[in-house]
Amino acid sequence: MSKIDQVKTKWLGNMRFESTNPGGNLFIDAGPENGGEGNGYRPKALMLSALAGCAGLDIAHLIPKMKLEVDDFSIDIDGELTETDPATYKKVTLYFSFYGPNLDSDKLMRAVNLSVDKYCGVLEMFRQFAEIDIKVNFNS
């Protein structure tokens, strides 16, 4: 039997919504340039957050399994949109930054590649419509 994720979203008036997700609630709103008040997440940017979260969870899971010493890491994403409506992401660049004095860059690249090539389902979905670019920085 396949797994089903369920999200419930309720209109709160104007351009604002509340969305209930298995992990909690969040608010979605358009920016003032699109008739909203900017009091919530933007839907397309939420997709980028989901992508960072998916890859981040994979790597966080792999760090102890691979016995890596990482003090901190971050994932920044740039999503380039098409110029015509409906605007969709045409190019997405993920910037992985790892911090710590004893970084094993080879093993960390393996962890990133496992996430990017094997485990991250959100990234696989993005591949259906966008060019993906991966950049990795190691900071001692």
UniProtKB/TrEMBL annotation:
Pfam families: OsmC
SUPFAM superfamilies attached to this UniProt entry: OsmC-like (SSF82784)
Residue intervals passing through the bilayer: none
InterPro entries, sorted: KH_dom-like_a/b, OsmC/Ohr_fam, OsmC/Ohrsf
Tree of life domain: Bacteria
Identification of the protein by name: OsmC family protein
Organism of provenance: Flavobacterium agricola
